[in-house]
Write a structure and sequence with these properties.
This protein is α/β, with parallel strands linked by helices. It has ten helices and four strands. Helix 6 links the parallel strand 3 and strand 4. The model has no long low-confidence stretch (mean pLDDT 87).
Length: 211
């Protein structure tokens, strides 16, 4: 994650309220108005891609999700040239007969302008860090469950919940088994990491010596 985020070609946008809160802890000026998720800008980006004749590729989710997502785009954006590949493969198996090797060949033959990688964090970031240099694309986007919304497998939260910082609650109530750990346990672990990091970076107290 750190290696990918530190690359000069990587741009980071605020896609969740925990990022806003973390920035505030660092003294940065940030609010819910700065938050922008894939659900907010994704549909407009895909419509623009169809208009500009940009090719769009998706890697991630299940084969069924990929098929349903492509069916949605064929119906709603018939001019969009898009392909999807599921994300169930071994990240370390690059042998010539592996699924990952075939995936790379097919993606490169398609040469997408926009490449959405939706495998969840940190697998999607690991994929781009390890295999992104081998792929032909213009822009790659870590997209999480992006395709699931268009495939009808995820319900889109009301957009007014985002600026209020309550979109996570909507997802948690809709699917507590999937999101319980993410929204109830991970924030606690993150807070402990931040406190520990700050304590570790704090300079030692210098004792004053008097003659």
């Amino acid at each position: 994650m750190r290696r990918l985020l530190r690359r000069p070609s990587t741009a980071v946008h605020i896609d969740g309220m925990p990022i806003v809160w973390a920035l505030k802890l660092q003294g940065k000026r940030a609010s819910g108005k700065n938050r922008l998720t894939h659900v907010d800008w994704g549909p407009d980006a895909l419509a623009l891609a169809a208009k500009k004749n940009w090719k769009v590729a998706f890697i991630g989710s299940t084969p069924h999700t990929c098929a349903m997502g492509m069916r949605y785009f064929q119906r709603e954006l018939p001019d969009l040239e898009a392909k999807a590949w599921d994300g169930y493969f071994d990240l370390d198996d690059t042998t010539p007969d592996s699924k990952l090797h075939r995936l790379k060949k097919e993606v490169n033959a398609f040469a997408p302008d926009l490449l959405f990688v939706g495998m969840g964090m940190p697998r999607q970031e690991q994929f781009l860090d390890l295999h992104g240099p081998d792929l032909r694309y213009k822009v790659a986007i870590c997209a999480g469950a992006f395709l699931e919304y268009f495939a009808g497998e995820q319900s889109r939260p009301p957009r007014w919940l985002g600026p209020l910082g309550l979109e996570w609650m909507y997802r948690l109530l809709r699917n507590p088994r999937r999101y319980g750990g993410r929204y109830l346990m991970e924030p606690l672990a993150l807070c402990l990491l931040i406190v520990g990091h700050r304590a570790w970076r704090r300079p030692p107290i210098q004792s004053e010596m008097k003659d």
